[in-house]
Write a structure and sequence with these properties.
By secondary structure, the protein is mainly alpha-helical. The chain is about 45% helix and about 5% strand. Helix 1 crosses helix 3. The protein binds a DNA duplex through helix 2, helix 3 and strand 2. It comes from Lutibacter aestuarii. InterPro entries: ATL_DNA_repair, MethylDNA_cys_MeTrfase_DNA-bd, MethylDNA_cys_MeTrfase_DNAb, WH-like_DNA-bd_sf.
DNA sequence: ACAATGACTCGCT
DNA sequence: GAGCGAGCCATTG
């Protein structure tokens, strides 16, 4: 638990919680929004740590292809997909359909932040 | 302190 | 157009 990293992690959690219902975003988008476009991996790592936190809809965060790459880290195997489908998101073979439609860009959806 | 891994992304072949 | 490899940053062994 690093305090310095907590800032970065906290930011990820903030954005993750801000993801509207029935919307998803990519690690790169969040990373870029945080000013660490090259640190998309760290966003994923933050999501991994999100298990230690609460109310972090990590299932709404996928890679830029819309693939549920992190579903392996969830409890079951299709839990992540189930959650997304419960929000009205169409998921097919671990891949989000209409990804561009359900994609949530913090730069566009969050006019004033930072 | 060094080396390896990871829920990613971009570029080249 | 699809596949493979390298780059980046932080955490862990």
């Amino acid at each position: 638990m690093k305090k310095s990293s907590e800032n970065f992690f906290d930011k990820v959690y903030e954005v993750a919680k801000l993801i509207p219902f029935g919307r998803v975003t990519s690690y790169g988008a969040i990373a870029k929004y945080l000013g660490a476009a090259r640190s998309a991996r760290m966003v994923g790592w933050a999501m991994n740590a999100s298990h230690n936190n609460d109310e972090i809809p990590a299932h709404r965060v996928v890679n830029r292809k819309g693939l549920l790459t992190g579903k392996h880290h969830f409890d079951g195997t299709n839990l992540m997909q189930q959650l997304l489908e419960s929000e009205g998101i169409v998921v097919r073979d671990h891949q989000i359909q209409h990804f561009e439609t359900v994609f949530w860009d913090p730069f566009i959806e969050l006019p004033n932040n930072l």
